[in-house]
TrEMBL record:
Pfam families xref list: IBH1_N
CDD domains: bHLH_AtIBH1_like
Protein name from the UniProt record: IBH1-like N-terminal domain-containing protein
InterPro entries: bHLH_AtIBH1-like (IPR044549), IBH1-like (IPR044660), IBH1_N (IPR059002)
Organism for this UniProt entry: Arachis hypogaea
Domain IBH1-like N-terminal: 23-83
Comp. bias regions, Low complexity: 95-109
């Protein structure tokens, strides 16, 4: 009987690893974002609503960068944010955040993607087998514009990075909803 017990194998689920990764992301995200938001709140003076909104957007994006290190999209997002901050820093050293923030590029891309896809649908009416390759290339171009740094990735890497980017965006939404519910 004891020999049979030794033959048993333990089966581990993939889910606990995913839960640990989500917990680490959430902890890192909260550890970066909450102090940054408190700093913004404490330093809030007679600033314009749009300026505060853009500063918060910048900090939310930076929290995403620091919480999801090791991905190509995270490195690209960090480079975009740093480049923007260097280009728009004032003489006093503080960032000047305006509505032209490049970290908003994903929402701009979504508008373009919808426009491009709708334009194709209205032009063709339906997808031909002859146009299937062009349609796939068009959809890949749209996906490349959604992910930071997607233009520099091969198709396989882009798909893998897109999967991680979407899962991190979902976790980001969950954290932000929690923070919004907690403060209301």
């Amino acid at each position: 009987m004891e020999g049979q017990a030794a033959k048993r194998r333990r089966v581990y689920s993939i889910e606990p690893k995913k839960v640990v990764e989500e917990a680490v992301f959430t902890r890192n995200y909260m550890n970066y974002l909450v102090p940054a938001l408190m700093k913004i709140k404490a330093g809030k003076r007679s600033s314009h609503c749009c300026e505060i909104q853009n500063v918060v957007k910048h900090e939310v994006d930076m929290a995403m960068v620091f919480s999801a290190q090791g991905f190509a999209w995270s490195n690209a997002l960090k480079a975009n944010l740093q480049r923007y901050q260097n280009e728009h820093s004032s003489s006093s050293g503080g960032p000047i955040i305006t509505s032209n923030n490049p970290s908003n590029s994903s929402s701009k891309s979504i508008k373009y993607v919808n426009k491009d896809i709708k334009g194709e649908e209205y032009e063709d009416g339906f997808i031909n087998n002859n146009n299937n390759n062009n349609n796939n290339n068009s959809k890949l171009r749209c996906l490349r514009r959604l992910i930071p740094g997607g233009e520099d990735m091969c198709n396989e890497q882009m798909v893998e990075e897109l999967e991680s980017y979407i899962s991190c965006l979902k976790m980001q939404v969950n954290v932000l909803q929690y923070l919004a519910d907690k403060n209301c």
